[in-house]
Design goal:
mainly alpha; 1 helix; rod-shaped; single chain
C-alpha cells in the first residue's frame, strides 16, 4: 500500500475555505459591477445622456 502525501489531499476544511473564497470573490465582482453601473447612470444623468 502506498502512502498519499498530504500535499495531494484536501481536507474538508480546505474545500470549505476554497468555496468561501470563491463566493467572496463572486460577491465582490458583482458589487463592483453594480457600483460601475450606478456610476455610469449618474454620469449619463449629469451629462444629459440619460433617459431619466
Amino acid at each position: 500500500m502506498t502512502r498519499i502525501r498530504a500535499a495531494y489531499t484536501l481536507t474538508a476544511t480546505s474545500e470549505v475555505e476554497v468555496m468561501q473564497k470563491m463566493m467572496v470573490e463572486q460577491f465582490l465582482t458583482t458589487l463592483a459591477e453594480v457600483a460601475f453601473s450606478v456610476s455610469q447612470r449618474e454620469a449619463n444623468r449629469e451629462t444629459g445622456n440619460g433617459r431619466n
